[in-house]
Amino acid sequence: MYNKKIENVELINKVNFDAKEWASIVLGIRKSLNLSQTELAKRLGFSRYTPMRYENCLKMPRKNSVKKVLEFIDKSNLDIKILKEIGYSCVDGFAKDTKVPKLKLEYSKELAELIGIILGDGEIMKDGTLRVSFDPKKDLNFHYRRTFFLVESLLSNKLHYESYKRFAFYNTAFVRFLNQDCELKSGNKSKNNWEIPKWCFSNEEYLKSAIRGIFDTDGYIGYNSGTVEIMFGRFSKGSTNLIRDIKEGLEKLDFKPIIKYSPDGRCKIRIFGKGDVIKFMMIIGSSNIKNIIRYLLWRLAGYPAKIEHEGMDKLVNMANFLIGNSITTIELPFFWNESNFSNLNNFKDDKTFIEKRLIAPKHL
């Protein structure tokens, strides 16, 4: 007589499953029994985030956890081979809550900025998980001060770290909002060719906020042959919609972006010159301290900061000295404007410079 339990135990003793195989098994269990990650965690006696970490290949079960999973599989009369096949078919995850309606959100500058952050460094999974990757040396302060605030205030979600360079949160209703109202499909962003939501183009402030979110995650202030520039990219060859929308959005805000493709097909979008860089930080701004520091050191001292070589602490101290205050007290988003820097001659000169070029931002 066929004994599934014996075969399961023999299989687990014979095969040393890797992270991808464990991910497929956990996904297969959830889809077979229509369980959410939290529900499976409760049944197994795990932390609520453990199934998510298994599915994202961020954690491997230890011996005691392997035993619990196997006992659960046998108790549920499931087959490991079939579970793996089911799991492999769920490349972008599995959501139990297929009937949960989309979240009703009012369009706002804050929502547009959060979506820009997701467009830049985010992932949308079919199981309702949203993940954001980041450089821990440069971006941790930005996400802690700004992204966490946006997620918690707009969605009432708490975030958790999947690793030292990625955090995540779960919200099926928000994922449906992104799918339906923003046309951002779950799964591979390049394959799905994400774009800036059309509603962001209906309001200039929404557009500025969305571009700021993209800039803070997928852009930087750089220096090229002695010229300062705003840079977006490098975008993959499959991101044609996003490249188009960033270019058109910047042009709508009266910038002159240049698109440049590298030999591998990846793309950078650049804004050159003193005037446009100053204007960018006046009307679009930044919430990422790495961009704020680079801008301030350039404008106040003509200093080309290189965070990757000099370290964040040194450059923060330099900026604090120049502005006569702690940079961490500056309200986010940061703008090079009168409310922050009216006492600095550099700002007064820049304001006059921009006005003379007849491209003064409306709020000046």
Verbal overview:
The chain has 364 residues and is α+β, with helices and mostly antiparallel strands. It is built from 18 helices and eight strands. The protein has helices spanning 4-14, 19-33, 37-44, 50-55, 63-75, 80-88, 109-121, 140-155, 172-181, 189-192, 204-218, 240-252, 274-283, 289-301, 307-310, 312-323, 338-341, 345-356; strands at residues 122-124, 129-133, 160-163, 166-170, 219-224, 227-235, 258-261, 267-272. Strand 1 (122-124) and strand 2 form a beta hairpin. Helix 7 (109-121) runs parallel beside helix 11 (204-218).
Give a quick set of tags describing it.
52% helix; 12% strand; alpha+beta; 364 residues; 434 Repressor (Amino-terminal Domain); disordered C terminus; Endonuclease I-creI; four-stranded antiparallel β-sheet; 18 helices; single chain
Describe what is shown at a glance.
By secondary structure, the protein is α+β, with helices and mostly antiparallel strands. It is 52% helix and 12% strand.
